[in-house]
Design brief:
The longest helix is centred in the middle third of the chain and has 8 residues. With 69 residues, this protein is an alpha+beta fold. The chain has three helices and three strands, in the order αββαβα. The radius of gyration is 15 Å and the shape is elongated. The protein starts with 7 loop residues before the first helix and ends in a 7-residue tail after the last helix. It has one domain: Irregular (Factor Xa Inhibitor), CATH 4.10.410.
Length: 69
């Protein structure tokens, strides 16, 4: 059997924390920023923890068996 490879798109977008949670960027933070308030843009700048429903799918793409899978 060939080795399983990490999904290239996922490794650029997600990071697994020490406790096994999945950290990601906020959506709506990359363009059309003129109309968004500075307060809202500051909120989008901080990373977000994925929900319990979405985290297993991201972990499967990351193929991280040592990170609490």
């Amino acid at each position: 059997m060939p080795k399983m490879k990490t999904h290239s798109g996922a490794k650029k977008r997600f990071k697994v924390t020490a406790k096994g949670k999945v950290r990601a960027r906020h959506a709506f933070s990359s363009h059309i920023l003129e109309k968004k308030s500075p307060k809202y843009k500051r909120k989008l700048a901080s990373p977000v923890i994925l929900s319990d429903h979405d985290a297993p799918r991201a972990k499967k793409l990351l193929n991280a068996p040592t990170k609490g899978r």
